[in-house]
Design brief:
By secondary structure, the chain is an alpha+beta fold. The protein is built from 5 helices and 10 strands, in the order αβαββαββββααβββ. α1 crosses α4, α3 runs antiparallel to α4 and α3 packs across α5.
Length: 244
């Protein structure tokens, strides 16, 4: 049994084993910012590009929110870059949220994960992960940047509403389990990024998104459905995903 000691180093080792193009930084301002800088400086990739960091000094969330880093080696800070032949559509955020949720749930099915729209993953009533999605256009080409911050071995002590994966497990968190999660995440991201240029969600994905949202205690009103466009339908109102 090989316990997970460094999320940063183990994720880099996994990327090497899978022959995934990646750059690793001990300290960086923001993995998304680095990904966007590379996008402006080099030609479009033929395969996904991964940026990893052990510590972010200016980790960003949605709008002007910031991601607070826990102790070094204890969190996943990464940005994935995918090339698209068409611009991503409004269904992209719920699809990417589903990809992260489903990857975690596949490996740790007994943990109470949920999605809190528009860009957070919760365990019970505390945040464990955040997602930041941005897009870049160069001529007729489009690039999708997906930033993921996941508290794995610890959570920031100053944030009482945050948690980490480890403190919600009843088993050891091993390198093998972590690699299983990364395998699922990579598979799901590739699948859902391909769907991100579609105009509507399919029925199966809508059902999965509804289930993931309904598990979040943040929502006091029952979620009745998810529209094909990704809107959240309550009994008395409908809210577009991007407005949350």
């Amino acid at each position: 049994m090989n316990p997970l000691k460094s999320v940063f180093l183990s994720t880099g080792d996994w990327a090497d084993q899978e022959n995934i193009s990646h750059d690793s930084f001990e300290t960086i301002g923001s993995t998304n910012d680095q990904s966007k800088t590379l996008s402006l400086d080099i030609d479009f990739y033929r395969s996904p590009k991964l940026i990893l960091a052990n510590h972010q000094t200016h980790g960003r969330g949605r709008s002007k929110n910031q991601w607070v880093s826990p102790a070094p080696n204890s969190a996943l800070f990464c940005s994935w870059t995918f090339d698209l032949h068409k611009p991503p559509q409004p269904i992209t955020p719920p699809l990417i949220g589903l990809s992260v949720f489903d990857s975690l749930k596949k490996v740790w099915p007994n943990v109470a994960f949920s999605i809190k729209a528009p860009n957070d993953i919760y365990i019970k009533n505390k945040k464990v992960a955040g997602i930041l999605i941005e897009s870049i256009q160069k001529g007729d080409h489009h690039r999708l940047v997906i930033g993921i911050g996941l508290n794995v071995l610890s959570a920031p002590k100053e944030l009482t509403d945050s948690t980490c994966l480890l403190e919600n497990l009843t088993e050891f968190l091993t390198v093998d389990l972590w690699n299983q999660f990364l395998d699922e995440l990579y598979k799901n991201l590739r699948r859902y990024v391909k769907l991100s240029t579609d105009s509507e969600l399919d029925t199966a994905d809508r059902m999965m998104i509804k289930k993931a949202l309904s598990a979040c205690p943040y929502y006091s009103n029952e979620i009745m459905d998810i529209s094909p466009k990704g809107d959240i339908i309550f009994e008395d109102k409908t809210i577009p995903w991007q407005d949350l």
